[in-house]
Specification:
The protein is of the alpha/beta class and 363 residues long. 29% of the residues lie in helices and 26% in strands. Helix 4 crosses helix 5, helix 4 packs across helix 10 and helix 7 (228-238) packs parallel to helix 8. The two termini are 19 Å apart.
């Protein structure tokens, strides 16, 4: 099969012929119809994000495709089924703290690197080997829309955070980082889950206006100044009432003051979920006042990605129309143009704009 291969950090992807994956017990081989390209993928492949990734590797994080082959223990998947491939691969030998690798992107610790030895190759290829539990039926879809269904892989990230927060219908949610790729997706997800109002702070004036246009009066946008105290008061004032949930999705480049300004808007007995990248590349750590956390009974938790059961739930949200995938514009590239796809994603990707690779030329 053809695949795009990263041989050294900082080098271009090389398109070459590699062996087809061979299915085993507990595995599925999928013909990749569309693979999303993360806006920051080029940063990872240049080594700037310092992710644990064993080279050479076929990169690519998740895919939409059709089942090519199933292992002998598969009972419901059928060859030809349309499926979503979740790149979050967990070891099967520790149910409490499983090692994790993000297929084609990164690993968590030494155990995650061991997982990469078998499941490391990602979706920038004609075929993808995936654990059976990471394959989720989509039902019938139009092949021309396969790229748009890759939006689920973006939407799953904030969905996992809002699940962790225990979001209830009618509550007010503040999305810290609302003008970014995952942040803007979080706005759509929160509304689909029944949030009464979403406070969306940011500095990108164009994207704030776009959120207002797309989602109407349930969105309360806030223009940030960079002054922590002043911004905190602006966010509180924008909310129609107490802020029940804060979800932070700010990237590594954001200052900790921006996170703290948002976090400390949450009401007494409220919940804060941290999912962003602040501090991952060094710099100041997030300092929150102990007395404020304790006396206000604030629940603070981290959440990395989403649990497995989130996948069919998000698929159902899309199937029902509560999450409208038509909001996402799609630009598709052939596998041979994978490097151009990386450049396009870095400049144009994110914020309801998907860059995808179509290995079969479906673009």
């Amino acid at each position: 099969m053809r695949a795009a291969v990263l041989k050294e950090f900082g080098s271009s992807l090389v398109i070459e012929t590699v062996p087809d994956p061979v299915v085993g017990t507990g595995e599925v081989v999928v013909d990749v119809e569309a693979a999303g390209v993360l806006p920051y993928a080029a940063e990872v492949f240049r080594g700037e994000r310092q992710y644990l990734l064993t080279l050479p590797v076929i990169p690519g994080t998740g895919a939409v495709g059709r089942v090519r082959a199933v292992g002998p223990d598969s009972t419901r998947l059928r060859v030809g089924d349309w499926v979503l491939c979740d790149p979050t691969i967990r070891a099967r030998d520790d149910a409490l703290t499983p090692d994790i690798t993000l297929q084609g992107l990164s690993a968590r610790g030494e155990g995650g690197l061991r997982l990469q030895e078998h499941f490391g190759h990602g979706s920038f290829a004609e075929q993808l080997l995936v654990p059976t539990e990471n394959v989720f039926p989509l039902g019938a879809i139009d092949a021309a829309d396969a790229g748009r269904w890759c939006a689920l892989l973006v939407l799953l990230v904030p969905y996992g955070g809002l699940l962790a927060a225990g979001l209830q219908a009618g509550q007010t949610v503040l999305i810290s980082g609302a003008t970014g790729n995952f942040g803007s997706a979080a706005v759509a997800v929160a509304l689909a889950m029944g949030a009464g109002s979403v406070v969306a702070p940011g500095r990108n004036e164009g994207m704030l206006c776009e959120l207002e246009r797309r989602f109407g009066p349930r969105i309360r946008t806030v223009r940030l100044s960079g002054d922590e105290e002043a911004d905190r008061e602006r966010m509180r004032a924008a909310a129609p009432g107490p802020i029940d949930v804060v979800l932070d999705l700010l990237p590594p480049s954001a200052p900790t003051t921006a996170v703290r300004a948002a976090v400390m808007t949450v009401r007494e007995h409220g919940t804060v979920v941290l999912m962003g990248g602040v501090g991952m590349l060094g710099g100041d750590d997030l300092a929150l006042p102990y007395p404020w956390l304790m006396r206000n009974n604030v629940t603070l938790r981290g959440q990395w990605l989403c649990p497995r059961h989130a996948n069919p739930q998000v698929i159902q949200l899309a199937r029902s129309g509560q999450l409208d995938l038509r909001q996402f514009d799609v630009t598709a590239f052939d596998l041979a143009d994978a490097n151009a796809a990386l450049q396009h994603a870095a400049v144009e990707g994110g914020r309801f704009s998907l860059t995808v690779i179509r290995p079969g030329g479906g673009g």
